[in-house]
Amino acid sequence: MNDSIRTRIVLTALLLVAAACVIVGCNDGEQMSPVEKALAEYRAMPVEEREPALRELAASGPDNEAFGWYGLGNMYYERSQNENVPPGPETRTGESALLDSAVTFFEAAIAADSTMVEAWVNMGLIWDDISDGRTPQARQAIDLAREAYTTAIELAPEDEKARCNLGSLFFRRHLYPEAIEQFKAVLDSNPESALAHYNLAILFAESRMYREALVEWEAAVDSDPDGDIGERSRDNIKVIEELMNSEIPAELTQGGH
Description:
mainly alpha, disordered N terminus
């Protein structure tokens, strides 16, 4: 195998690993948000007890309604990742009855509290997932995901999950300047955001700006030394260093100086 073909294969594998990570969004930090605090005891419940308890929470009054619906939305979204339940004839997502329910629950949370950033972000995440599919709903889902993330950012300009997920949406559609804008906005407010550094590194690597990619992955390792992002970054650093030390054709290295 010649060096040019080998380089393209290794770089493609690197980017495929990144794509799975980008969609998760950035880490908001170790402190629990008010929503997380409100739902902590429900997350600890056995699965069979959680849904009736969350429905009871949603029905308990205006102070708790949004929390209950939001918790149910999360529960059904998580189930959709592991259970294959075909959509019904009136499906909105076109992919899963569980995703249809998750959308309904997040909409109920937003109706109860239109300022709940987490509900907007997770609604965006669902449409984001669907936008990569081939259903009739996929094309509309791109706009719906973007609108949900944008609303979350308008409500909380420094929210890392909203900005990282919007940056991911742009990245996967090759809108690189727009993606960079979102990741850099995260770093402006939190210079230690591991995933924002990680995502910038992916953009640089795709542009074959390898030295710039290494700087960002090293920053991600410093910010998340013991976590998944730090581990992925270390793996990617090894791959890029191997590429840089190989005999790479000039046309593949011009962007990396």
